[in-house]
Design brief:
Blueprint (H helix, E strand, L loop, with lengths): L4 H11 L4 E6 L6 E7 L8 H11 L13 E7 L3
Parallel strand pairs: 2-3
Antiparallel strand pairs: 1-2
Amino acid sequence: MAITASELETLLRDAFPEGSITITDLAGDGNHYAAEVIDESFRGLNRVQQQRAVYSALKGKMDGSHGELHALALTTKAPE
């Protein structure tokens, strides 16, 4: 089962309501996306901590072989 770009964006907007979020469908199959999340909550966090926050926001959509989302290329940072 795949996830739409708008569903993915909704999950991220719920977690980062003030953030700048850009979603790109990399393969057109609903399973491979790139996401750029720029949010103030990332300030002072290292890249791993930032990406863990994003994965947490996905609420299990990438968990295991039956997850709705197969691949997510992440770019995360605090605003400049």
